[in-house]
Amino acid sequence: MSEWVPTTCMRCAVGCGHKQLGVDEGYGVDVVRGDGQHPVNRGLACQRGIEESADPDGQWLSKPLVRKGGELVETSWPDALERVAERFDAALRRDRDAVAVLGSGQQTNEAAYALGKLARGGFGTRYYDANTTLCMASAVTAYYEAFGSDAPPTTYDDIPDAETHVVWGANPAIAHPVMFRWIRESAGEDDSRMIVVDPVETDTATTADEHVQLDPGEDLALARAVLAEIVDRGTVDREFVDEATDGFDDLVADLPDPATAAADAGVTPETVADLAAAFEDRTLIYWGMGINQSVRGTDAARALIDLCLASGNLKPGSGPFSLTGQANSMGTRVVSCKGSWPGQRPFDDPIHRSEIADEWGVPVGRLPDDVGPGPVGTMDAIDDGPVEAVYAVATNPVAGMPDATAVAEKLDDTFLVVQDSFRTETTELADVVLPAATWGESEGTVMNMERTVSRVRPASDTPPTVQQDIDIIAAIADEVVPGLLPEPPVDPSAMFDEFAALTEGTEADCSGIAYERLDHELGVRWPAPEPDAEGGYRYHESTDDGDDWQFATPEGTANFSDPPDPDPLPEPTDEDYPLTLTTAREADGYNTAVRSRSVDDLGPVTARINPETVASELADPAEFDGEPTARLETRRGAITAQVDPDPAVPEGLVWLPIHHPATNDLTVPATDPRSDEPNLKQCAVRVVADPSLATYESAERSSVDGSSGDEPRDGEGATDPEPVELTDGGEPR
Fold first, then answer.
1. Can you give the CATH number for the domain in which 389 is found?
2. Contacts of 455 (CB under 8 A, 6+ apart)
């Protein structure tokens, strides 16, 4: 009989502790439940995390594949790795930037660290991303500019103490159900409330005390209107501003008139006044992709932080709290060498570069001079040079990147290696497919959005033809840059110790964390410079003399933003494209939904459109027999969608699920000038009646041979967990 194995859910970044039970025979996870002992969730668990851990609907990859005669066919691991090594080695001999690497927040810290070490210290490429640029880069840039360090200052412990919860451009009821329960419980207390700022009446908005329905893309205008109102009302915390911040007066001198900015944002002055009043309480402001995924993402995130600074909401029970999507997005930011060296060491600092090179045993000149342009710029470098080979690990850019048809065409022109657990739109184009272990099969650690590090443990072995992420990375390193990484199989705890040692003395110090400590405590929040130390609220400390603030900036103060000069939105509506397209998550649409759908049976994409817009652009919805079907067109492509006439979506807006592969055929590849994050939330679209087609077709993308993953790899088969919305394996937080 299998034993319960404590682990961490890898669906989203809440970081819930799970217990998993492996199947008695074969491979796979039988039962999953919340871990009542875990310090993050105390037994709470959401339905999707349980289902996607125990019984994912995706199609397993179970054997290595190589492309022969235009088809992917099974091969041996030695053959697959030899092909990869030969092509990577030949490309790197021509140009160290010729190999691009795309990682993911779905990897463990150990695998992400190994991949970054291979990309930066082995290949020396600047064309490397850990997937954070697609979701969190604008928030990261804002944190660095404001505080000198990445990650929210807040923790989950602050949620019960907040009096007002402002949820801006996020939908945690869908994306982070366990965390949303804590928010909802706190907001339900006497003298507490929740305000949601979103163009769409989301599931979160329906439970809020107030829903602010601004115009799409006008978050920056609204945030500046609220700051101007705070100044006009005289509710600025001058003591905090004078003692702990810089730049306030310059920013105030550039603020707009609140009423004018309110009109620009599409809201009333009364709405702005109410939002400003909210910051007189202890206020937590949460934001997500509705802020980050914009050409104005960094400016908008800075503006939200400005609201916290001006109102003095930067101590326990208050502050800015960006909501991370992928399970280990925080971990990849800290460990993977994308935007900084491990532990947030500055990328361009010669002392840190030299120390990293010495520890890795590589010439300092091999390390790239800059962090690189992010995924969109990497795709451009396929067209313009020098990228000629791409190594994608646990990521699906053909579905997840803007202007996805163009992305598919570019990747099809490269030597593409895809390492994943499931078939995806990207594996369909690969020249080599490497099957990797997934949740319940992997060993390592992850970091959640509040900086807590916890263990990931296997409840099941893998088939002999499936390998751990970290071992595949090490095997490629052994062929191309021998000696850089240990030969596989790699001891994950030793890899964690190597990473943690590199963080000693940094802002993200993890040197006091080790596997033995995590086995005992289950979760430890950084910074943790000693074996008995753990981080709490950052930058603030209560002393006998009052409040003390210390920030990671050179001056030791927090920075208000410079007066913004935002780029125009990339595609305003016009006569040809009169509607605005926006994108967001569905409940089963995490991580491009590869765990909850089949590549061969995508089903139609559903466009949510206000009934008045449907009537003006198509016909009266009452005249349709069933769901109407329409053709959605942008300047990059066209898809056919089922139309859901939905009054929760404002007039003039078209809502699409971001992780359906059809959606990003339409989105625009414009990026934020400071963070490189794509503008996935707004572009111009038109709706054309087209009843002849009802589903998204992907026939142009070549198919994987049927042996690649249609069969389950779990032996006897994992049983379905009992369907639940939210389970509670212990006392609620």
1. 3.40.50.740
2. 6, 7, 8, 444, 445, 515, 518, 519, 522
Identify the band that residue 699 occupies on the pLDDT scale cut at 50, 70 and 90.
Answer: very low
Encode 184-209: b = buried (16+ Cβ within 10 Å), e = exposed: bebbeeeebbbbbbbbbbbbbbebbe
Instruction: Confirm whether 95 is domain-assigned.
Output: yes
Claim to verify: residue 356 and residue 265 sit in the same structural domain: no
Residue 403 lies in a domain: yes
Identify whether residues 194 and 309 lie together within a single domain. Answer: yes
Tell whether 297 is covered by a domain.
yes
For CA atoms 340, 344, 350, 354, give the dihedral sign: negative
Same domain, 25 and 101: no
Structure tokens at 104: 């993911």
Question: Alpha-carbon torsion 642, 646, 649, 651, what sign?
Answer: positive
Cβ burial, residue 640 (10 Å; 0-12/13-18/19+)? buried
pLDDT digits (tens, 9 = 90+) for 49-100: 999 999 898 899 999 999 999 999 999 999 999 999 999 999 999 999 999 9
Residue type at 547? Answer: D
HSE, CB side, 13 Å, CA atoms: give it for residue 321.
32
**Same domain? 344 vs 479:** yes
Q: Clarify whether residues 275 and 222 are in a common domain.
A: yes
Q: Are residues 276 and 172 in the same domain?
A: yes
User: Domain holding 45: CATH number?
Assistant: 2.20.25
Q: Provide DSSP, 342-390.
A: TTTB-TT-HHHHHHHHHHHTS-GGGS-SS---HHHHHHHHHHHSS--EE
318 domain-assigned: yes
Taking the C-alpha atoms of residue 639 and residue 16, their distance in angstroms, rounded to an integer, is 37
Q: Specify the long-range contacts of residues 186-192, CB closer than 8 Å, at least 24 apart.
A: 186/159, 186/160, 186/161, 186/162, 191/163, 192/162, 192/163, 192/164, 192/165
Domain that holds residue 472: 65-131+333-439+464-487
pTM of the model: 0.94
Cα atoms in the 13 Å half-sphere on the side-chain side of 154? 25
Using alpha carbons only, give the angle 224, 196, 291 rounded to the nearest 5 degrees: 55
Percent of the chain with pLDDT over 90: 85
CA distances (Å), origin 548, targets 150, 188, 253, 426, 465 = 20, 31, 28, 50, 56
Q: What is the DSSP letter of 479?
A: H
Q: What is the DSSP string of 626-662?
A: SS-EEEEE-SS-EEEEEEEE-TTSPTTEEEEETTSTT
- Band (pLDDT 50/70/90 cuts) for residue 652 is very high
Total length of the chain: 733
The pLDDT of residue 703 = 35
| Co-location of 44 and 113 in the same domain | no
**CB-CB contact of 241 with 309 (8 Å):** yes
Residue 76: how many CB atoms within 10 A of its CB? Answer: 12
Answer yes or no: is pLDDT of 731 > 60. no
For residue 176, what is the domain's CATH number?
A: 3.40.228.10
Provide the number of structural domains found in the chain: 4
**Structural contact between residues 649 and 655, judged by C-beta atoms closer than 8 angstroms:** yes
Q: CB of 110 within 8 A of CB of 442? A: no
132 SS3 class: helix
What confidence tens digit (pLDDT) does each residue in 661-681 have? 999 999 999 999 999 999 999
Give the separation between CA 108 and CA 111, rounded to whole angstroms. 5
Same domain, 160 and 275: yes
3-state secondary structure 214-274: CCCCCHHHHHHHHHHHHHHHCCCCHHHHHHHEECHHHHHHCCCCHHHHHHHHCCCHHHHHH
* Cα–Cα distance measured from residue 649 to residue 547, given in angstroms and rounded to the nearest whole number: 44
**Residue 77 CB burial class (10 angstroms; 0-12, 13-18, ≥19):** middle
Residue 449 CA to residue 469 CA, distance in Å, equals: 22
Contact 112, 328 (CB under 8 A): yes
